[in-house]
Amino acid sequence: MTVTVRPAPGDAAWWWLLGALCLVLLAPLTLADVPPLLDYPNHLARLFVLAFVAHDPVLARFYQPHWGIIPNLALDLTVPPLLRVFPVHLVGRAVVGLTILLPVLGAAAYHRALTGRLSYWPLGSVLFAYNGALLRGFLNFVVAVGLALLLGAAWVAWREQRPTRAILIGALGAVALFFCHLTGLLFFAVLIGGHELLILWTDPFRFGGILRRAGPVIAVFAAPVVLYGVSDLGQMQGAAVFRSVADKANAALMPVMNYLWPLDLATAALCVAVPALCLARRWCAVPLRAAAAIAVLLVLFIGLPTAFKGTFDLDTRFVMMAALMAPAALVSIAIPRRAAWVIGIGFLLLFSARMAVLMTVWHDWAGYLGQFRSVIASVRPGDVVLTVRLPRGTENDIWTSVATARRLSDGTVVDAHLPALLLIEHRAWWPFLFDNPSQQPVETRAPFLTLAARIDVSPDPIALLARDEEDMRPITHVLVRGPVPGPREIETAGLTMVAENGEAALFAVVRHRLSR
Question: What element of type H or E holds 442?
């Protein structure tokens, strides 16, 4: 479908609005030096290890690099060199800031490539900037989504006029996406596929066109296919885990998931209702190539499992892509001025409300972060810290309407990996560093690898410590988050309290008490 578009009113106003929205998106990063993104502290700890392990005997005692062809290396390849020059938390927040902005910039670029105009519609993608994937700390994935949109824009803009440039950029970008996240590579393939199908649909010599256009597409994806085939992930076995229908419906809210359940639900409803109204009234249209891409992404979301080969929330990655595609795909035809003003003001009010909730929560998080650091302040380089959350197995309550610094609106606890600060700020060992050889280029050395495995599967690690088993003897401290163990448990495990503030408690292991 071909649509006629009107020039966007005032390019300068558009750029000023984009700049203002980006500044607002970055503002929360000034509130806390460790953003409350679930996996983020763990990722930062791994990057810290990769930056300094070669010259730090304390870190080398615990970890060693494990480089290979891994489709999840974007941060691991780019961030460690920066950590050797700049403060770790400054670099970390800069990376998070870039991660937040890339999908927004990608949506704007893709819309510009589709229409040849600047438009306010793709700026609606800022409503999805702080989404469930980002707040869970899936940084490589979010970067891959933004990069795929930028590469898709380049393909649409140059494939017909400058095919050599488009193919070269596409081939290099596909390799970059492979090392960011495989789902981002698939997103790029969907974007290219939508464009190529449109060209073939309008080609009177369709069969010959298929042969002529297949070659460049194969050239773009040939290297990533080979890389996947020789990677550890390509050889990895893993059973697929599927969601129930109810869980799938809940997972559809991932693009708007934040901290306040009613606000997230209202955001989702408006993000569906407003474009539907505009399309029904013929105020807007969606080009065929973009409509086809959105349809494929939604089918993948519905049909794919939630977990496969060590990747979790796999299906939600595609509803995230579809949500970011939607504002990028809307093209104004003849929207009434009054309706445009109502939609614009409503968007700004909704965006302001979401950012106000988020900034309030992150401000509270900064206070909690200070309390946590006060508990672990006495940990020294080379210490081995057993971290336990009590009661175990109660981390996720489903769907909450209470905005809190440590819990998303679906009940996900986001401070689970905060003990990674033991490594980043104290160069101590804790058991849960991301070190899956098929996904991360670092591995834990013996005997700490065995120790981590035992702690991970044990329902009561403190009881293991109390038995003074050989595997547990490297442990020097126990960090308890939640209710403090009773006097009997403390005495049995040979612990003496070092610090406690109601949020967490640090105990030192006293070996002579264990040997009595």
Answer: strand 442-444
Q: Residue 6 — very low, low, confident or very high, per pLDDT cuts 50/70/90?
A: very low
Question: Do the bridges between strand 504-509 and strand 477-481 make them parallel or antiparallel, or are there none, so unpaired?
Answer: antiparallel
What's the CA angle centered on 182, arms 310 and 300, to 5 degrees?
85
Q: What is the DSSP string of 273-338?
A: HHHHHHHHTTSEE--HHHHHHHHHHHHHHHHS-SEETTEESHHHHHHHHHHHHHHHH-EESS--HH
Domain map (residue ranges) of the chain: 67-335, 374-514
DSSP state of 279: H
pLDDT per residue as tens digits for the range 25-36 = 999 999 999 999
Judge if pTM exceeds 0.70. yes
Q: DSSP letter string over 130-196?
A: S-HHHHTT-HHHHHHHHHHHHHHHHHHHHTTT-HHHHHHHHHHHHHHHHHH-HHHHHHHHHHHHHHH
Q: 436: pLDDT confidence band, cut at 50, 70 and 90?
A: confident
Which tokens is 122 given?
């793709």
pLDDT average, residue stretch 232-239: 66
CB atoms within 10 A of CB 468: 15
- Report the distance separating Cα 264 and Cα 199, nearest Å: 38
Calpha distance 208→200 (Å, rounded): 10
Place of tokens 């399309």: 279
Overall average pLDDT of the 152-176 stretch? 94
By C-alpha distance, which of 382, 364, 390, 252 is closest to 317? 252
Distance CA 368, CA 35 (A): 12
